[in-house]
Design brief:
about 230 residues, mainly alpha, single chain
Length: about 230
C-alpha cells in the first residue's frame, strides 16, 4: 500500500536530510516519496496566504482522501509541511520529475492545488504566485497556466472556451470532439492510469463538472445566437 510507506520516505523529505532534494529516498521507482511530496505541496498551498484555516484543511481532505489506516500518518505530515511555504519548489521538482512523461498528471496536481487555494473562495496574490511558480516548475507555459487558472476562477475567467482549450471560431463538430477528448482524459480511471494515487480521484469529478458546465454554456450560447438570427 502506497501510503503505508510514507513514514520512511517522509523521514527524509521532512527531516534533516531534506537538503538532499529527496535523492536517495526509496528511489524514484517507489511511489512513497512522490506521495509525500504531493502532501507537502498541498499543505504548503494551504499556507500560501499566511494562514491555514479549517476550510483549507477540508479542501485538502477532499483532494487527498486517505483511508482510515493511513489517516493519522497523512495528518502528521500535513501538519509538518503546513508550518511554512519554504521548500515548496523542491517538492514541486520531485513531482515534476516523477510525472515528466505524463503532463496530464501534472495538470491533475494543479487542479488539486487550485481546489485548496480556493477553499475560502478567494485566490490571493500570494496563492497565485505559488501556483504560478509550481506550474512553471511543472513545465506549463504562461498560456497553459492561464487556462488552468480560468478553469477554476473563471474569466479572467469564466470563459468556457478557455476551459476546454479551444477557440471561439471552432465548428460544432470540432467542438463536440474537443469536449469528448476533455471528458475522456479526465475520467477517474484515466487519472489513476496516469500514476496519481487513487486517493486523488476526487479531482476528476471536480474537473468533469467544470468541463460539462463549459460545454453546456457554449451550446446554450450558440443556440441563443442561432435563434436571434432566425
Amino acid at each position: 500500500m502506497i501510503l503505508a510507506r510514507l513514514l520512511s520516505a517522509a523521514a527524509q523529505l521532512f527531516g534533516p536530510q531534506s537538503a538532499t532534494d529527496g535523492r536517495g529516498v526509496a528511489g524514484d521507482n517507489d511511489d512513497a516519496p512522490v506521495v509525500a511530496a504531493l502532501i507537502a505541496l498541498g499543505a504548503k498551498m494551504a499556507k500560501a496566504d499566511g494562514e491555514v484555516r479549517a476550510e483549507d484543511i477540508a479542501a485538502f481532505d477532499q483532494v487527498f482522501r486517505a483511508d482510515a489506516a493511513s489517516r493519522s500518518m497523512v495528518e502528521r505530515f500535513f501538519g509538518l509541511a503546513r508550518q511554512t511555504t519554504l521548500g515548496f519548489e523542491r517538492y514541486a521538482r520531485r513531482v515534476a520529475r516523477h510525472f515528466r512523461a505524463r503532463p496530464a498528471a501534472l495538470e491533475d496536481v494543479m487542479d488539486g492545488l487550485f481546489h485548496i487555494a480556493l477553499a475560502d473562495g478567494i485566490l490571493t496574490d500570494d496563492e497565485n504566485e505559488y501556483l504560478s511558480r509550481v506550474a512553471d516548475i511543472f513545465g506549463f507555459s504562461d498560456a497553459e497556466y492561464a487556462r488552468l487558472k480560468a478553469t477554476h476562477v473563471g474569466r479572467d475567467a469564466d470563459d468556457p472556451y478557455l476551459i476546454l482549450g479551444i477557440d471561439e471560431t471552432i465548428g460544432d463538430d470540432d467542438l463536440r470532439k474537443a469536449y469528448r477528448r476533455a471528458a475522456a482524459s479526465n475520467h477517474p480511471d484515466r487519472l489513476v492510469a496516469r500514476g496519481l494515487p487513487p486517493e486523488m480521484t476526487a479531482l476528476a469529478t471536480h474537473k468533469m463538472a467544470l468541463i460539462n458546465r463549459a460545454y453546456a454554456q457554449i451550446l446554450a450560447q450558440r443556440k441563443q445566437a442561432k435563434a436571434i438570427c432566425l
